[in-house]
Specification:
The chain is built from 13 helices and 6 strands. By secondary structure, it is of the alpha/beta class. Strand 5 and strand 6 form a beta hairpin. Helix 1 packs antiparallel against helix 5 and helix 4 runs antiparallel to helix 5.
Length: 300
């Protein structure tokens, strides 16, 4: 079983194991709920990693499912313990309004921490995993949902910590990003901030675990232009893949197989319509030079 880097990851792994064991035992959700004397929704939430597991409940499920292996029992109980620990992001979010910024929820940070791959399409700005501190600060200020500089500083630091997943020596997170050409044009913060951001983007796009593709205006309108979104993929046994949508009221996570496959298909269409890796890097560097020229007061 893959190692989890977050309590949510442990809950998702535990849920996947409990679902496997229930299926192996030939029991339905209703039958298990009746034996545990609880609601069917409680069992369902445990299996989808959305409920916080209690040790007595899992011990009873171990009995119901007939788990006799000491190794298997120890693994399940360890996952219960790990799922109740605090995540690395919680001190940074402590005290902040729950609706501060759409992509900085604890759930999203946890999903990224345990993901194998993130495939994302951005229309307005660079993805948070590749933002520089100054660019991130300008984005957060532009949302109008963060009132104090201290809150912005904490959220910028949270974004920086999320980015460490791309730099891990052990199994770094893979990122496949499609950027609409409008992201390269739009000045966020200032031309100097944009030049620095696109330089960072160019450097990161050359890492073996990061792919950045530009969707040119010449590619026309696509289904994906309905809104920014992404698909978060996990190793087998680590829980189901998740799609997410960005909106004014926050992130919406979808883990239904049909939803995830639909957004995977939409992303595939965008990828096919994008420039190849070499041409995309050339466009990023070209716009970096343009913004740098504007910052220095030179003709572009």
């Amino acid at each position: 079983m893959p190692t989890s880097r977050s309590p949510l990851g442990s809950r998702r792994r535990l849920g996947a194991e409990l679902r496997r064991l229930r299926t192996r035992a030939g029991l339905t959700l209703d039958e298990v709920a009746a034996q545990l004397t609880c609601s069917t929704s409680k069992i369902s939430r445990l299996e989808t990693g959305k409920g916080i597991p209690k040790l007595p409940d899992v011990r009873e499920l171990i009995r119901i499912y007939g788990v006799t292996s000491d190794t298997e029992q120890e693994m399940l109980l360890r996952l219960v313990h790990d799922s109740r620990e605090h995540g690395w992001w919680e001190p940074l979010l402590d005290g902040l309004p729950h609706d501060t910024v759409v992509d900085l929820s604890a759930r999203h940070a946890a999903l990224e921490s345990d993901a194998l791959r993130v495939s994302a399409f951005e229309i307005v700005w660079v993805h948070g995993l590749l933002q520089t501190p100054d660019y991130a600060r300008a984005v957060l200020a532009a949302t109008g949902r963060v009132e104090h500089d201290g809150e912005i500083d904490r959220l910028v630091e949270l974004r920086r910590r999320r980015q460490e997943a791309l730099l891990r020596a052990d199994s770094p997170l893979e990122l496949v990003l499609v950027l609409d050409e409008s992201v390269l044009h739009r000045v966020v913060g200032s031309p100097a901030i944009m030049a620095e951001q696109l330089q960072h983007l160019s450097v990161m796009a050359r890492r073996p675990n990061v792919s950045v593709r530009v969707l040119p205006f010449a590619g026309g309108a696509r289904r994906g232009h309905a809104g920014a979104f992404g698909v978060i993929e996990f190793l087998p046994g680590a829980g189901s893949d998740v799609a997410y949508l960005e909106g004014h009221t926050g992130l919406t996570h979808l883990d239904g197989p049909g939803d995830v496959e639909e957004y995977r298909a939409v992303f595939g269409e965008l990828l096919l319509a994008s420039l190849d890796a070499t041409a995309s890097l050339a466009e990023i560097d070209r716009f970096r030079d343009i913004h740098e020229s504007h910052a220095e007061g030179r003709p572009a």
